[in-house]
Amino acid sequence: MKQDGSRLTTELLLLTVTVWEAVLVALVSPLSATGPLAGLGVAAWLGLDEAGRVGRIIMLYHALAVPFVAALVYLLLDLFPLSERKAGLVRSTVTAGYMLTSLGGIGFAYLGGGWIAHGLFLVGLSLVFYAGAVLAVGLAPWEEAGDGPTVERWALWLTVVYTLITAAIGGATASFFGNGFEAFLAEDVVRLEQTLGQKAIIAHLHAMLMLIDIVILIIVGRTFRLGGAPYRVAMWLTIVGGAVATFATWSVMVFEFAHKIINVGVFLLLIGGAVVAVQGMVR
Q: What average pLDDT is seen over the chain?
């Protein structure tokens, strides 16, 4: 009965975050100065000039990406049960976190919410980070019951830990925005000489996207109850490839040749993903 209640909670939370994302997209669409609804003139009425475009895109990205990460957390809690206390803490904290992040980010970037809205944005991100830390503690492989930790559990736990470190890199670097460090988009400087701060933000961006993909891969494998030798091989490839690619991505901040090492890690991840895909299709 408790399991049915947990499943219902997960479904309601996923429905909420889906509606939340849809509302955000519907809200922001008329605010674009270049999108299909630009003719409405809302952006001009709000005074959204070109000078603040990059900053608005960064805030919008986080306002949309963080709820998506929260949805992945809900799925993980459903597939990898934690203690009731830890699971409840993670759910409530990540939910409040993504809502504050979205409201604060959109309010600051588009609606003239000022620094109070920016403060709410930072509080939201902090809550999500805290939820991630609690999740990492709860998912620790040595806490797993039964015959001991599985390779899948190790792959997931390491990915969560890497994600927390990567988030910290982004947060620490972003704290210098407006204090000698200007906002930028990664695609605008990818072919240019980059500062240490720019390299750190690019490392944060690329590593986060990769780690989110790894979590999705593990969720797929767990959802379809994949197992056996092929799945264990895929998880080992995920562990090794994820470690190589993540550490190399962080190292790009200091060593230029680390870009080549990233390719090695990503290649292993692609093989692992292919194994999971093939195993799923032949079931």
A: 90
- Is 1 a residue whose pLDDT tops 60? no
Please return the burial class of 41, using the count of CB atoms within 10 Å of its CB with bins 0-12, 13-18 and 19+: exposed
Domain boundaries, given as residue ranges, for the chain: 1-138, 145-283
Whether 54 has a pLDDT exceeding 90, the answer reads: no
**Token pair recorded at residue 168:** 């910290």
For residue 98, the number of C-alpha atoms closer than 13 Å in the C-beta half-sphere is: 27
Distance CA 110, CA 30 (A): 11
* Tokens standing for residue 188: 């605008």
Over residues 20-41, the mean pLDDT reads 81
CA nearest to 240, candidates 275, 207, 271: 271
- Distances in Å between the Cα of 260 and the Cα atoms of 166, 187, 210, 239 are 19, 19, 16, 19
CA 91, 13, 135: angle at the middle one, nearest 5? 25
User: How far from 161 is each of 1, 182, 242, CA to CA, in Å?
Assistant: 32, 29, 11
Lowest mean pLDDT among 97-106, 144-153, 191-200: 144-153
| Residue for token pair 């963080």 | 66
**Highest mean pLDDT of the ranges 6-20, 29-43, 60-74, 104-118:** 60-74
DSSP bridge partners of 181: 177
Q: Tokens 């509606």 belong to which residue?
A: 19
Check whether domain 145-283 has CATH 1.20.120.550, yes or no: yes
**pLDDT score for 186:** 84
Q: How far apart are CA 129 and CA 148, in angstroms?
A: 28
